[in-house]
Amino acid sequence: MKLTKEAKILALVILGIFIILNGSLYVVQQNEQALVLQFGKPIPPIKSEPGIYFKAPYFLQDVVKFDKRILEVNLEPKTLPDVQQKQVIIDAFVKYKITDALKFYQTVQTYAGLAQKVDSILMASLKNTIGKISFQDLLSEKRSKVMKEIKSGIGDKADEFGVEIIDLRIVRADLPEQNINSIFNRMISEREKEAREYRAQGEEEAKNIMARAEKQQTILVAEAKKQAEISRGEGDAEAARIYAQAYNKDPEFYNFYKSMEVYKEVINKENTQFILSPNNDFLKYINKSGE
Question: How does pLDDT run across 80-103, given as a tens digit for each residue?
């Protein structure tokens, strides 16, 4: 069945309408915001609500869409001097959100364009902040404060591109390879120096402890000897008093007792020989016992 001329014309009209409508309709998703361009120039307003929208056919107007979610820029590592002029490698990333799609398009147009701008302003903020701190600060609890300061430094300038900086993180802070060995050697030297100082302090303290102990020992021994001499003197005095009392009561018995003690000490020993006169007082009580 052949189409009539009118049918062909109608079909062409319908096809043309479909093509025009297809190029005039666009969909904005929930996580998107859209900006209409006419001959490359943005036409406000921004479509930020999800839905179906109309525009002029594609040969007159076009649409660019931007993500409304939080996005991330991973930046190239930077080598910067710290406050001690040591070269430090900083590896960081930035999380941001597009808050003004019109300004974003007018200033950077694309995500790659924003990454270049952020890289530039981050470099300036890093130089300003890292140049005031030491490498050790980046490895301590001060790191969070440093990141906040860097984020604050890029936050105001990022607003010029229609974005809000949500977060900035330093994922790595390191030294260049050529500096690591010298740093390690210096750290080893410092630790050895500290060890020597601690050992010297320990030896000095040990000597002081020994000196105090010896002094205390000398004092205690002297005090003990003193008490022993006092006790011995008191004992001797008491013994002398008892002997005196005994002598006063019975001098003859006292002489006899003392003689017996002497005999016990000297005569009881083996191979004891005496050459004495029979009338010697030492044999007084022995001679009496034989009578």
Answer: 888 888 888 888 889 999 999 999
